[in-house]
Amino acid sequence: MPRTTDRAAIVAAPKSLLHDHLDGGLRVDTILEISDQIGHTPELPTTGREALQAWFTAGAEARDLLKYLATFEHTLACMQTEANIERVAYEAVSDLADDGVVYAEIRYAPELHAMPFGASAAAVTSGFRRAERDAAARGKFISAHLIVCAMRTEQRSMEVAQFVAKERKRDPKIVAFDLAGAETGWPPSLHAEALEFARGEHLNITIHASEPPDLELISDALAHGAHRIGHGVRLNRDTQVTVDGELRLGPLAQFVLDRQIHLEMAPTCNTQIGAVGSVAQHPIGPFLRHGFSVSVNTDNRLMSKVSSSSEMLAVATAFDLSWAEIGRLVENAVSAGFAPYDERQRVLRNVVRPWYAAAG
């Protein structure tokens, strides 16, 4: 079996993805084409393909959060019709399938699209289904699902939660509710009513918690019913590596471990926003080996210039992971997924476990 630091082998390996933003993963060519169609081209910073890709990644590479966030103005401009949203969703799942992803949950915020929530969500899931069919025709398998986000800086979280509660009965591709957007100064407690409603409706809940005030934000997310934590990288503030290499846990970290609360980690993005100094300093390696439920995610593939395979390769290289450990990262994510249990078990039983068993 090739080494785990062999890129081709990583691409071929079945992977899972729980934290990927639809408006953060557009193809550069698609942005150029749609911008031309809708008259947005004059607003772009540049129209050269390579130059535009470099502009989109400049904020992340410079660890400039404001510059990073400014890029979404242009991706969202390309997602304001049902046809364009369907195209973006189709391409996202197609790209993931070609990268070896077999189980994916992609998220979007309906508040950011100038149309009824139902119209944009239907366009997204239509694109997902078309991509799944076309991937199967190419001999590739992927199971894709949608997480619907409320923007925590706005006041429509109850509306979004109610939409998820209603639409999940109509469209099984819609699997969860999320709070996204700026976190510092916008804790989950500001959306307590919507989160109480979500819990009462037995919605799956994941909440972003990757910015200061560190442990307080993670704790607040858990107190308001999060089943998973988006990123959760700052949980490392509640851990300490001892002189003999053991991981000593504080009360919050122990709580997360004991209850196997899943952490949707995105090492490159977490590094780019300054939460850790490098992928090698990221807690995902020690957490994995200590028994935490963690997974490798992309967050925004365009802005961070990453893929599921490049992220897995970076982590595998930084921590010298074995194939068994990579398999555990993949299985962690599928097991913690929000799709129906039977579907996730089929993915594990028919795709993930046989491949990693053979990899040995």
Q: What's the topology here?
A:
Layout: H1 7-12, E1 15-21, H2 28-38, H3 49-61, H4 65-70, H5 72-77, H6 82-98, E2 101-108, H7 117-137, E3 143-151, H8 157-170, E4 174-180, H9 192-200, E5 205-209, H10 215-223, E6 228-231, E7 239-241, E8 247-249, H11 251-258, E9 262-265, H12 267-272, H13 284-290, E10 294-296, H14 301-304, H15 308-319, H16 323-336, H17 341-359
Helix pairs in contact: 6-7, 8-9, 16-17
Outline:
The protein is α/β, with parallel strands linked by helices. It has helices at 7-12, 28-38, 49-61, 65-70, 72-77, 82-98, 117-137, 157-170, 192-200, 215-223, 251-258, 267-272, 284-290, 301-304, 308-319, 323-336, 341-359; strands at 15-21, 101-108, 143-151, 174-180, 205-209, 228-231, 239-241, 247-249, 262-265, 294-296. It has 2 domains: 7-26 and 86-359, TIM Barrel (Alpha-Beta Barrel); 27-78, no CATH class.
Question: Can you walk me through this structure?
Answer:
- It is a single chain.
- The protein has 360 residues and is of the alpha/beta class.
- It has 2 domains: 7-26 and 86-359, Metal-dependent hydrolases (TIM Barrel); 27-78, no CATH class.
- The chain has helices at 7-12, 28-38, 49-61, 65-70, 72-77, 82-98, 117-137, 157-170, 192-200, 215-223, 251-258, 267-272, 284-290, 301-304, 308-319, 323-336, 341-359; strands at residues 15-21, 101-108, 143-151, 174-180, 205-209, 228-231, 239-241, 247-249, 262-265, 294-296.
- The strands form 2 sheets. The protein has an 8-stranded parallel β-sheet with strand order 1-2-3-4-5-6-9-10, sandwiched between helices. Strands 7-8 form a two-stranded antiparallel sheet.
- Strand 3, helix 8 (157-170) and strand 4 form a beta-alpha-beta unit.
- The radius of gyration is 19 Å and the shape is globular.
- The relative contact order is 0.14.
- The mean pLDDT is 96.
